[in-house]
């Protein structure tokens, strides 16, 4: 076990990447460092949630028509309050808020747009299952410099993200992020005694093919024939293709994604006819699928909506939902072949 004080902090890692990027101005470093502070505050609250009255639901419903947990509200407020004054953001997008979140006039604005799911998996908060924060960062389009907050500035395809990552609040608090352009995917573990994230997973690469499939099989009555055939494929015995796969499903996207990123495998949340208002599945393009799609692509994996790359979807609205197949490249390509009808 490395002695406590050793190890590269995430701040040192970000600064090193800044030095290696000739166009870097330090703005991005400031942004990421402040987000890390917000995550440390959320981590502390999540870890003591069982001891204070911050468990349970608020009795409110969010724009996703989901029960709002007290920790959801806390996490959302912490990120907004910490990030709005750093002078690097044009605006923010939160899963918890229906509209764009502007920067109050007393603070300077910047060119970055932060999109986030403040506490993903919140239905697991009260049962001590890992939950997390997912984030993606765009640069504002070089549209006219009007100070108007334009949705067009934000509705960019995931391929335009300049960075993405997540924090997992579980047995330990881990941060995983990438700035793309072959800089790799790197993981850092929070040492509470130091208050620092130290490099623990350098240059994460996802296995090209896995042995794990993650999906909520309780939804199978609502799937179409192609989805049923795909899931049945992973469950069918076939020695040369290493099947049946093992089923692992926590119900927290960040936890299921992180396990498959490290071990290999595929996470699926297909379109279903369970809720006529959500025909394209439950997960959100802008604050969940796009950030994780950037991470997995940089780690050698792939993310699809069943017909093509998640990162190439031109968003039409802020809280657009998409079917999500994400993980090991070969497994996701196979899923895409089933869902698009190229194979059965
Ligand atoms: P289901 C959590 O509420 C979440 O948004 C993701 O974290 C998770 O992958 C998914 O929903 C679980 O949904 O329908 O399987 O409970």
Name its key features.
5-stranded mixed β-sheet; 28% helix; 344 residues; alpha+beta; globular; 2 domains; D-Maltodextrin-Binding Protein, domain 2; 8 helices; binds 6-O-phosphono-alpha-D-fructofuranose; Fructose-1,6-Bisphosphatase, Chain A, domain 1
Description of the molecule:
With 344 residues, the chain is α+β, with helices and mostly antiparallel strands. The protein folds into two domains: 10-201, Fructose-1,6-Bisphosphatase, subunit A, domain 1 (Fructose-1,6-Bisphosphatase, Chain A, domain 1, 2-Layer Sandwich), CATH 3.30.540; 212-339, D-Maltodextrin-Binding Protein, domain 2. The chain has eight helices and 14 strands. The chain has helices at residues 10-19, 27-48, 70-83, 151-154, 225-235, 253-263, 285-298, 329-339, and strands spanning 57-61, 67-69, 89-94, 112-120, 131-139, 163-169, 173-178, 186-191, 196-201, 212-214, 246-247, 266-269, 302-304, 324-327. The strands form three sheets. It has a seven-stranded mixed sheet, with helices on both faces. It has a five-stranded mixed sheet with strand order 11-10-12-14-13, with helices on both faces. Strand 1 (57-61) and strand 2 form a beta hairpin. Helix 1 (10-19) runs antiparallel to helix 2, helix 2 (27-48) packs antiparallel against helix 3 (70-83) and helix 5 (225-235) runs antiparallel to helix 8 (329-339). The N and C termini lie far apart (49 Å). The relative contact order is 0.13. It binds 6-O-phosphono-alpha-D-fructofuranose (P6P). 6-O-phosphono-alpha-D-fructofuranose (P6P) binds next to loops.
């Amino acid at each position: 076990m490395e002695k406590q004080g050793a190890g590269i902090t995430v701040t040192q890692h970000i600064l090193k990447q800044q030095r290696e990027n000739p166009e870097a101005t330090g703005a991005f470093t400031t942004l990421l460092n402040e987000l890390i502070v917000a995550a440390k505050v959320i981590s502390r609250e999540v870890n003591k949630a069982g001891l204070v009255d911050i468990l349970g639901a608020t009795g409110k419903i969010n724009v996703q028509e989901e029960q709002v947990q007290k920790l959801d509200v806390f996490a959302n407020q912490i990120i907004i309050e910490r990030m709005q004054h750093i002078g690097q953001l044009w605006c923010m997008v939160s899963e918890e808020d229906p509209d764009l979140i502007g920067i109050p006039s007393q603070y300077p604005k910047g060119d970055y747009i932060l999109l986030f799911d403040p506490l993903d998996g919140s239905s697991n908060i009260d049962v001590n299952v890992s939950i997390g924060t997912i984030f993606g960062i765009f640069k504002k389009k070089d549209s006219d410099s009007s100070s108007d907050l334009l949705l067009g500035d934000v509705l960019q395809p995931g391929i335009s993200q300049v960075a993405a990552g997540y924090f997992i609040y579980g047995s330990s608090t881990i941060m995983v992020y990438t700035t793309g352009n072959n800089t790799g995917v790197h993981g850092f573990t929070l040492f509470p005694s130091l208050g620092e994230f130290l490099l623990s997973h350098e240059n994460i690469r996802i296995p090209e093919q896995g042995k794990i499939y993650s999906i909520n099989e309780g939804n199978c009555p609502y799937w179409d024939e192609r989805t049923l055939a795909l899931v049945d494929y992973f469950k069918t015995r076939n020695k040369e293709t290493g099947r049946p796969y093992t089923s692992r499903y926590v119900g927290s996207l960040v936890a299921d994604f992180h396990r498959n990123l490290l071990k290999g495998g595929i996470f699926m949340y297909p379109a279903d006819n369970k809720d006529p208002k959500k025909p394209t599945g439950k997960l959100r393009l802008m604050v969940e699928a796009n950030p994780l799609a950037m991470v997995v692509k940089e780690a050698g994996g792939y993310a699809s909506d069943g017909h093509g790359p998640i990162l190439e979807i031109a968003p039409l609205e802020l809280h657009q939902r998409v079917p999500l197949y994400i993980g090991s490249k070969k497994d996701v390509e196979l899923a895409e072949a089933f869902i698009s009808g190229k194979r059965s």
